[in-house]
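Narrative of activities, Objective 1.

The group set out to show that a structural description can be obtained from nothing but a protein's sequence at a throughput compatible with the screening campaign. Below is one input-output pair from the validation batch, recorded exactly as produced.
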Amino acid sequence: MKYDPIKRKLGTVFNQSPVLRKIFYRLLDLLLLRSWHIRKEIKLWEKTANGKQHILDAGSGFGQYDYYLASRNKNWQIKGLDVKQEQIDDCNDFFGKINLNNASFGFGDLTKLSEKEQYNMILCVDVMEHIEEDELVLKNFHNALKDGGMVLISTPSDKGGSDVHHHDHDDHHENDGTHSFIDEHVRDGYGLDEIRDKMKRAGFTKTKAYYQYGIPGKFAWKLSMKYPIIMLNTSYAFFIILPFYYIITFPFALILNWLDVKLKHKSGTGLVALAWK
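Output recorded for this entry:
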């Protein structure tokens, strides 16, 4: 099951005007549970962030988090790094069109990040599961943060949250026995202790990690993301019925997302990890 072609197709549809792009960002904020958790943590961090802040989005993708941050506070200077030039160019073009000048985008390999004490916060969403040299990246994050700075990571957990791409064969499986949903991951997620230990070895003095995508979140993800993408992989004709599908399922997905953020989970297919320098 291919995820990137669907993302590119959606990007093409919603890139036809800045208004559509903003609607797309809002839909991502509502549908993607990880965005609920990330925005909650950003609001908590914001209470301690006075004056001008420098923020690195390590793996900026479509730029939805950069839009959220740049719109939230004009005193925040956001730099988005990605390895896909088409997305970098696309984001620079869009942010230029809407005159949101406190965010910029460039190419960046996180294993080669060499900036020193530049950022108050580093955001890293759905990236660490793609990088073999994760401890090197965490050390680079530590070096790039100012004293007191925070890194905020969202990534799959080792409780079935990632579908690993096994390079030695083509039999990619999810934990439910179907073909892999995402075939680009290099590890089968993180455990809470594992990611905390790696952060400490990277030099961070304080860490925190907790599960997301608990029972409510898993149901929400299937309703709002998995089933629609299965349909779209079958045929792009499903784009026509997609609005009607969401009219029915959207309220249920919102309630489930809200519950996932409010409740504490003993287990979950994703996790949020924070660390302070």
